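Dissemination and training. As part of the outreach component of the grant, students in the summer workshop were shown how a complex can be specified as a set of sequence lines and then modelled as a single object. The example used during the hands-on session is reproduced here so that future cohorts can follow it. Participants entered these lines:
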Amino acid sequence: MRHFISVKQLTEQEILSVLEIAEEYRENKFHIKQELFVANLFYEPSTRTKMSFIVAQRKLGMEVLDFHTETSSVQKGESLYDTAKTFEAIGTNMLVVRHPDDTWFEELHQNAAVPIINAGAGKEEHPTQCMLDLLTIYQEFGTFKNLKVAIVGDIKHSRVAHSNAIALDRLGANVYLSSAPGFEDEDFDFPYVTIDDAVETCDVVMLLRIQHERHQQDSNSAKEDYLEHYGLTKEREKVMKDHAIILHPAPVNRGIEIDTDLVECSRSRIFKQMNNGVYVRMAIIAKLLLEWGIIDENVIEECQEAGFTKRINSM
Amino acid sequence: MRHFISVKQLTEQEILSVLEIAEEYRENKFHIKQELFVANLFYEPSTRTKMSFIVAQRKLGMEVLDFHTETSSVQKGESLYDTAKTFEAIGTNMLVVRHPDDTWFEELHQNAAVPIINAGAGKEEHPTQCMLDLLTIYQEFGTFKNLKVAIVGDIKHSRVAHSNAIALDRLGANVYLSSAPGFEDEDFDFPYVTIDDAVETCDVVMLLRIQHERHQQDSNSAKEDYLEHYGLTKEREKVMKDHAIILHPAPVNRGIEIDTDLVECSRSRIFKQMNNGVYVRMAIIAKLLLEWGIIDENVIEECQEAGFTKRINSM
Amino acid sequence: MRHFISVKQLTEQEILSVLEIAEEYRENKFHIKQELFVANLFYEPSTRTKMSFIVAQRKLGMEVLDFHTETSSVQKGESLYDTAKTFEAIGTNMLVVRHPDDTWFEELHQNAAVPIINAGAGKEEHPTQCMLDLLTIYQEFGTFKNLKVAIVGDIKHSRVAHSNAIALDRLGANVYLSSAPGFEDEDFDFPYVTIDDAVETCDVVMLLRIQHERHQQDSNSAKEDYLEHYGLTKEREKVMKDHAIILHPAPVNRGIEIDTDLVECSRSRIFKQMNNGVYVRMAIIAKLLLEWGIIDENVIEECQEAGFTKRINSM
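and obtained this result:
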């Protein structure tokens, strides 16, 4: 795991190790006794991902450099590559990047002298969101084998859908897609079902946000009808299996993908997902720092609490 | 004091306790020996309020999450409510909110799982600004009883005026209002006086910034005449009582509400107000954390300096 | 050195002392054991300067206040002067300012109660960039005497050119200027040479960014021809002296001032410059804090590592 760029690079064991370390972090505090700087380079808006990265970084004791494109030399035309190399030059030990290009990391990850974490790449991948979704499912069911997971909504423009479908498939889950006409992704080889089939048969109903900002033109799905035809209404929630749960990466378009009253209902794990995001990001950061040798076990041993070292070593 | 939302909820004793703890903080350093996160959600521009909150939070040892609406999911339409619940979910222990709606807190404070501090609500309330104004007056006069306080300027659009008039009245001061035509607030039951009467008779002349950004249309008070007719000129300053002081929440429109030469004159407490802002905000934060049980006296005892614990306990 | 505003105020000895302390900081960690706040007031975009100031400040253990003009009271018309005095009032111990006015510091530095560092003044001065450029040259050649330094590009609009030419001249280097028609600065008394002469004869080729944002109208130098006629092409790099180096303050307009392949070539010190920026800024900050008596040697002694105190005392 040189960088954390794509779920495609992760083995089942690597994924499970991230989830396991994340749970370890929830239970035990752990500070890195070493001065480390991390820069968060977000070229697209973010609340959850960026803020939970910052919480994760501060919990680990890292110094956080908060970069804003609109007040930076990006305004003078500086590229992501030159920006990233600048942060390396001033002593940054790790980069977290979100960028609208689907493949922003290609040039960069070959030349980076520090580990890079993908916090969102266009409509292609969002691997840390995937890890927190996986953790939320794992907490519920203890396994991924033969779970039925429906990914519902704007599949075409959703990096969350892409990362999750690939990872869930690798972990042995059965992935189904459900979307309004025009939101399908033809290049994506999973079976499509209706929303009514999805809610009736699946263990996990993972809703997606409609990515208005990625649409080339106005969608042909009028907002007022969307919920009724393609979203999770209160009627559909009632036919879900007893143990089935609702996920959504948020921000939620209330009343469009999901009835507003369901956002905080008993099946909803939407805020649990956010909470899990802090711990999976801590796990990913720590794994990369260790694997790159930026920190070693001595730093960990100095501040270990409750068996953390053992767990890290056995990853 | 479940949240710190409105001066209307505060008893005289609670107000005085905030002022007393603020003075304690000025004299003694005090760190909370516990990892706590606070998020500052400012939906309107701020220099003084936001930065003095950050200084207060860092002096207390809190981790600060700096949220920017323009680079957050607010851009994707996320509401204040969902944003606040997101910060709760990722582990934030306290929220500080400024928002243009007069009543943004109504939905939120019922459902919040963490304490919320109002850092400005539309044109309705600005209770932490009020506390720092009160502290500045208290430092000068040692009491509020029978003090004559003139609040001068854009009463109608000023949340500072609303919070201060209510609190000063409760504390026994005599509040007078003075404003240009169109800037009166008809719903507000305090006597109006001319600026000339105000400067001659009052102990405190509290000027307000003209809230250009809240005006529906161009004011009928042309800028060039405003100072002469309604503002604090050098001539008017000369007729103030010997001990009388000038307050202004800032930013000052120099040459409009007040002659530019008076901003740093000997009667002015404008920069003293800002300094007091740090300490009243520390006091409010600490009181809420204690009252919610987020921190307890053990955390305080571990890092007490010079009798702080005793004072906190006797609030 | 009351403030760090202009290279004109610096003696040769003061410059060399900054470089020496910077090297000391690179080798030894040094934290100030005292709660100090610094505010970075950037009224123009910045990546390198701002972020390396923040890294420098955090490495020294300072609390950093990150000010954004677009979400501050600058939006309500507040001036730099009033903004700076506000930060003083809330307890800031040092200000770092970048502003588009050539002489923003004139009113401020007379009245400032805390040390101010100039992080860029219009097209006039950029003294901390100058210090890091000098350190990079000094690391290479061990002296400035009789070095030939060509400053190449948009001289007229470049604060980097102005600060560097003055300082290099004072230190005994021979400064040459080279620029496209319209980019000369008539008020600046150094000889002009062609880019071909510059690369053949100079020890240091210091390229400048074309300051598109400061041009009143479109330059008559079309972008497509600029590199060939006035920039550093691969052909020109080949005729540079064996030991000669390339500097550029960045961000680089790749393919305009310099062939993109040369940015990371063996002669390039562009990323080394950025790295040096962290340490010269630490040195400047520490010198000012000591000279103002904001910190004293006791604070330093408490956390000294490897002879730092001695060096500071002998400045």
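The mean pLDDT of chain B is 92. Students were then asked to discuss how this feature might be tested experimentally.
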